[in-house]
Amino acid sequence: MIKNIEKIKNELSSNEFLRVAINMSNFLLVTNKEENGTPIGVSPDMAQELAKRLDLKLKLIPYASPGEIADDAENNKWDICNIGAEPQRAEKISFSAAYAEIQATYLIQSGSTIKSLEEVDLNGNKISVADRTAYGLWLERNIKNAELIKVDGVEESMKIFIDDNLDALAGLRPQLIETVNEIKGTNLLDSHFMSVQQAIGTSKNNTNAAQYIARFVEEMKSNGFVKQLIQKHKVEGKLSVAN
Fold first, then answer.
1. What CATH superfamily classification does 2-100+196-241 receive?
2. Does the 103-194 domain belong in CATH 3.40.50.790?
3. What is the pTM of this model?
4. Helix axes 207-222 and 42-53, enclosed angle (nearest 10)
5. If you ran DSSP here, which 8-state letter would residue 98 be given?
């Protein structure tokens, strides 16, 4: 077991630090920051527990978006990343199973004839979405008829939806619940078109480490650790333990 742990540590770290890419745009997984900018939340705490298990020092590396994290997958800028597991990203990153999930759905305009998910993907409809988000990548693969208006960042996707009077705004349900209260005359669809699967990823070259991380994630779900983090950071009802 000791030899195996050393092999895993050697794959993940050459200087006794575990470098962890953290997606700062996910407000459910990163709920706050310390005065020095250190991220606080479920995602950093998962990284801290993994580093503790491997007897490595933790170095959190904040990124503005998950797309930027994926861009650095082959640039040796991080050892593990905490982002949504999507097929496009999995081409360069080895992901564990999800440890948490977040529903994604649509916000629609007041007076819209859209009443269901199926009615969004129709010819002539325009959907605003933050580019390179996990739910945005899902829509790229699955929207067949409507037009995706991809913009840089969640806030910009909201702005375009309002300013251009688009038919739908795609986003994470917890964020859209807040948005519907801010933008008068908008409605939230009841169903969700997908759930973002938050996982831990590492380089495709780290085969032993990937297996260890996969076992770690399953243990953290089964022993209640992930649920405790969700409660600790007060995101119950918004973030769920993945099945």
1. Periplasmic binding protein-like II (3.40.190.10)
2. no
3. 0.84
4. 120
5. -
